[in-house]
Amino acid sequence: MTNPPGQLRIDDPSLQRMPGQAQSTLNQLIGETKTGLMGIRPFLHISPETTICRTIELMYDADASGVLIVQANQVLGIVTERDILQRATEQYERISQQPVADIMTPCPTSLKFSDSVQTAIKQIAQFRHIPVVDQRNQPLGILTPYRAFEFVDALLTEVAES
Q1: Which of 10, 79, 97, 111 is buried most, with the most CB atoms less than 10 Å from its CB?
Q2: Going residue by residue through the chain (162 aa), what tens digit of pLDDT does each one get?
Q3: Residue-by-residue DSSP string for 93-130
Q4: Dihedral pair phi/psi, residue 67, rounded to 5°
Q5: What is the C-alpha to C-alpha distance for residues 107 and 100, in angstroms, rounded to an integer?
């Protein structure tokens, strides 16, 4: 089945057993359900001046895989475990006291709470951690691949059982 331009469709071969109406319902749910309902993770946030060493400590204590860099209630950037590992393994002693702003991803792609699940899934395919913001661009949480797949799995189960 070919997707219309800009449309994400769930056409996994394992869903071929799903009746056409159920698959249509699933595609409709994905297109209309809002990102904010996907179970965005509560977020850890720090200022751009926080040292990398302190960032690592905070992420470890919070069991967080990513942290938003926030100033004046606006997302300036995001730092993930991958950002830290890529830089820290080579240069830890030199960079551990640098501000986290030196390694953050500035102006990360974000999702609005009201964006569709379809939009969120397209973004999660490109970025592993996506800030979710409200209409004033103030951070509400972080969407991770795990949360996205968990949500889609629940949708599939609900549709299959209906």
Answers
A1: 79
A2: 344 444 444 444 444 445 556 667 766 777 777 777 776 767 899 999 999 889 999 999 998 889 999 999 999 999 999 888 887 677 777 777 889 898 899 999 999 999 988 899 889 888 889 999 999 999 999 998 888 888 888 887 877 777
A3: HHHTTSBGGGTSEES---EETTSBHHHHHHHHTT-SSE
A4: -140, 135
A5: 14
Q: Collapsing DSSP states into helix, strand and coil, what is residue 25?
A: helix
The residue length of the chain stands at 162
Token pair, residue 153, equals 């799995």
- Predicted TM-score (pTM) of this structure: 0.62
- Which pair of structure tokens corresponds to residue 161? 């059982």
* Cα–Cα dist 95/149, whole Å: 35
CB atoms within 10 A of CB 81: 17
- Element spanning 139, H or E: strand 139-143
